[in-house]
Amino acid sequence: YVTLEPCAHQGRTPPCARALLQAGVRRVVAALRDPNPVVNGRGLASLRRAGVEVVVGVAADEAAALNERFVIAARLGRPFVMLKAAMTLDGRIATAAGESKWITAAPLRRRARALRRLHDGVAVGVGTVLADDPLLLPQPRTRRPFHRVVFDSRLRTPSRSRLVSSARDSPLWIVTTEAAAGRQALEARGVRVLAAPARDGHVDLAWALAALRAEGLWSLMVEGGSDLLGALLAARLFDQVALFRAPLLLGGRQSRPAFGGPDPARLSDGVRLTAQSPIVRPRSTAVSPAAAADAAYEIWYRAGVRYGRTR
User: Fold this and answer.
1) Which residues of 213-230 are buried (b: 16+ CB within 10 A; e: fewer)?
2) Which of 15, 20, 147, 190 is the most buried (most CB within 10 A)?
3) Where would I find the H helices in 116-252?
């Protein structure tokens, strides 16, 4: 019994389908067909050709929920993207002067850092690096490599930042534009610099996400700042949103919103959210993020998305 179709190709490990045949397995029950184009039914076909009885679709919704980040990334050709924001009740992440430490309490910040462990990496914009000098590591640390990503169109990330100083210990990607200068100095410190095409003077986010997926990132948690979150929101380049709220109201016209970007002219320009995973049928009870989330934060999915069949 497997949650995902056994693969039939040589990757970091030998083909799973071949291993099952060598073990003498005569019946395989797979919850999901693997959406990865490299597999996509080939594993099941190889088992059937060898005379193995194959059953597909048992507990498919539960398996889709368990593997949703992989399933969505495989179908879209980019990482599963979670947008995370720690904000006041009126949706602000900093005062007009830029003060943001700390909006949420220490227990909630620890929970947010632990949430990073669910993903292959975490991303921020260069403004967050310049303002906070973050390290961007999960707590507790993961055994597998954890990737830090900075979107930095003009390569302003300081060479003495904590991110660059730790680049040889934990992978650091800086995504910049092809015209940006100074990449050699960062690469000498162990930073991997990804030169993306520019769109309106900024990194082409769709191109960059596809490139990160090709480099092995299946899931990415984006923690800000306002401009990056707003750009991904406007481009619809996200799948899930985690909102950490503090019992605080800032008010004011100049305090910074969690999601920047262009001002929508109509309500229909906004993005609807839902508590239901888009790869699970609505009648399923396999996933209930709003109910499962701690009272201190909420997890929502982008509504109206169709990722295709899971069976």
Assistant:
1) beeebbbbbbbbbbbbbb
2) 147
3) 126-132, 162-165, 183-188, 205-214, 226-234
Residue 249: burial class (beta carbons within 10 Å; 0-12, 13-18, 19+) = exposed
Same domain, 178 and 135: yes
What does the DSSP 8-state code read for residue 184? H
Q: How many CB atoms lie within 10 A of CB 143?
A: 5
Number of residues that this document lists for the chain: 311
pLDDT digit string (tens) for 261-276?
A: 888 899 999 999 988 7
Q: Within 10 Å of residue 100's Cβ, how many Cβ atoms?
A: 19
Give the SS3 label for residue 96: coil
* Per-residue pLDDT tens digits for 297-310: 788 888 877 665 55
181 and 135 in a single domain? The answer is yes
Q: Write out the two tokens for 71.
A: 């399933």
The residues pairing with 99 across neighbouring beta strands, listed in sequence order, are none
Q: For residue 37, give its domain range.
A: 2-58
- 258 and 180 fall within a common domain: yes
Indicate the pTM of the whole model: 0.86
Kindly state the tokens that stand for 6: 């056994």
Is residue 230 within 8 Å of residue 260, measured between CB atoms? yes
Domain assignment of residue 307, yes or no = no
Residue 10's domain is classified under what CATH number? 3.40.140.10
CA 155/CA 164 separation, integer angstroms? 12
Question: What is the tens place of the pLDDT at every residue in 182-213?
Answer: 889 999 999 999 999 999 889 999 999 999 99
Torsion over CA of 212, 218, 219 and 222, rounded to 10 degrees?
0
Candidates 283, 279, 310, 218; CA nearest to 30 is 310
Q: What whole-number distance in Å separates Cα of residue 219 and Cα of residue 37?
A: 17
51 burial (CB, 10 Å; 0-12 / 13-18 / 19+) is: exposed
Both 47 and 160 in one domain: the answer is no
Query: 31 and 168 share a domain?
Result: no
